[in-house]
């Protein structure tokens, strides 16, 4: 964080305030697209690969995620950018479900999670975290069920 080559790693305060303000009832799905650094960038200079640091994030944050009702509902392995920037790649692609906006907010405020997220910050070169409302699945591409 800080140099011009840093990608999107953490939400801004303004966007997180919008996230909290839309506190509708029901679950949320968070689409995660994560590109890892080759070498993790820990502020204290410790050595690890981006993959090792991200694995540490998963190990340490997992119990908090599960305790608050989170679960992974879809995971995939990136293969090809068919439409989009040809040089873009993602190392982790998954959708995490949270039972509510409050559950996600509680997770990121949890002291154990706040310690674990330091591994994510060291590991991640760039990421996208996109909130979705869960809808029933339509039969065709253009159909958006009510």
UniProtKB/TrEMBL annotation:
Gene3D superfamilies, A to Z: 3.30.70.100
SUPFAM superfamilies: Dimeric alpha+beta barrel
Domain DUF1330, first and last residues per copy: 51-126
Pfam families, A to Z: DUF1330
Domain of life: Bacteria
Protein name: Uncharacterized conserved protein, DUF1330 family
Source organism of this protein record: Bradyrhizobium erythrophlei
